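User: Please predict the structure of the protein below. I'd like the answer in structure-token form so I can feed it into my own downstream comparison script.

Assistant: Understood. Taking the following sequence of 656 residues as input:
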Amino acid sequence: MRALRLTTLALLALAAVLPGAAAGQVDVPEPTPDLPAPPLEVQAPTKRLLVKEGQDGRLLLGGRWYFRQDDTFVGEQEGWFRQRDLAGWTPVRVPSSWNATDTELDRASVGWYRKEFRLPKAPRGVERFWKVRFEGVNYRTTAWLNGRRLGSFVGYFPFELDLPNVRSGRNTLVVKVSSLRSRTDLTHWRPAPFNGYGVGGWWNFGGILREVYARAIDTVDVERVEVTPRLRCVRCPARVAVQATLRNMTAKKRKTRLAVLVRGPGGFERRVRLERETIAAGARSELGARVDIESPRLWQPGRPALYSMAVTASTGKDERVVGTYRLDFGVRKLERRRGMLFLNGKQVHLRGASIHEDDPDTGAALTPATRALLLSRLRDLGATVTRSHYPLHPAFLEALDRAGILYWSQVPVYQPPNSFFELPAFRASAERAVRLTVQNNMNHPSVFAWSLANEPAGARSELGLIGRGLSTYICDGAAAARELDDTRLIAIDRQSRIGETLWSPAYRCLDALGVNEYFGWYDSVRADMPRGPSTTEELGPYLDHMRRANPGLVLLVTEYGAEASRRGAATQRGTYEFQTRYTLAHLRVHNSKRWLAGSIAWALRDFRVEPSWQGGAPLAYSTPPWNNKSLIEESNARKPVYFELRKRWRRTRPLG
């Protein structure tokens, strides 16, 4: 690599995204020689769907895409979004991460994706509109169609953009993706070696990491459907609230009728038709319905009963169907009693491992086969719970629904310090992430908790104190989540250190605490205490103190584990033997606390963190940048601890 001097315009653009970045000179890769332009292929989208939930008529924009790296940030200046030929572009397939195989730099950068496509013709007399849906992009996205800017989006979440200028023939969709991070982003906010930004709790994979769909709309769009089943008691009828967001895409008002069809176990079928409602031109309307299920089959581990729902919109005197939204949902009752969690009237005792989306070949752009492998490992282990630091791929959540594995869903707010929460703009961004997390995932019965953050203000230098801004976020975030969904737990996942406060007034706004504990591995002691590191023997008393300090909150161990990369002595940190002994000792402590809702190992499969990562292991027993605390190697080889946990987890009854 050599240093290249950026243009003044590029430096200004970089400074705008990266406040505080050094001006003048930034290390970037040496430009690659010009390659012959690849042949241009204009492809039709296919009907293949990886996710059930959503509208009828979605079409996968798969096949051949084209990619162009923009490490010097000149793409907009040079007009790549309106380029007609393919000079400088190379063929790729989406989902795609441009740094999927990087294990050295973890660099933040900019990449451009391009898709040439043609869409089906509309039937005669039908007014058709089009949208494009991105299931997940990292991190900042701007899109153009046929040279016209469509809009922008920030974050890991799914989003849609209108396609107002679709042509009958060739269309060119161009997507600029930036993984550059500002100092106060919600996750990757720590300095990185490459250009000063990009390092966080996991590798900063850039690209279109999940599928892209196009879909047609016939006058009125069923944009979103939110389903909230409620049970007054375990044997009571279920009252299923349905909230649909409809948008009139046309320039005149439309009389629209909403109909809901639910089918389920035991031949259950129920139809509900609402009165017609007029939706103004170009306007949105929220329509609500209720479906009663007199004797519902309840969703739970080992018996994950699911109901299917179709929400249909029709317009005109003949009530022509113009849109249908389909999903699966489950009926179950979560209760918090005396600080213990009950599901369908039975106390919960969960065991499992967290998921992190990282593959040695595809990075965070996991393939369906990789997701299926990870799910099969959870099932083989006898896992009844999993967790992640951000919402998983929607197809993975649907698989958890079918498998009966509970999911502790976390808003992607990762380890920000107190000082960030004092900034109103940061709190607003975090609260937006709360709302998007809940809205996009609330129909999944596997989700049983909304965690607002992982280890906020968790640096040892902060001494475990929760400042005013963080307290405000916890309570405001909890209120925002409950406004959308009041049937699940609201939590944060906190670090565990001896001497740090076990209670905060902000916890009054929560239902549960996730306990990330590494006693005997990390130095889990308040930074200013004059004593040695914590020990595994201190874990049990610590959990008891946590319970006494928060008697009304559900407690669940959300992380525990030790790095392991090779065989060796059981007393040597970093060996499989040490990991097995350590993990089983912690599991014995968890098992002894009958009030504990469960424990989740960190993690299922090894993943990349940052280039200098050791994770508490000696250098000779670490493999930077890989986090080696998991039960499975990044190569998919199972570590000895996997088989020991499998024996024990399979014997643990999740309910009762």
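That's the full token string. The longest helix spans residues 424-441.
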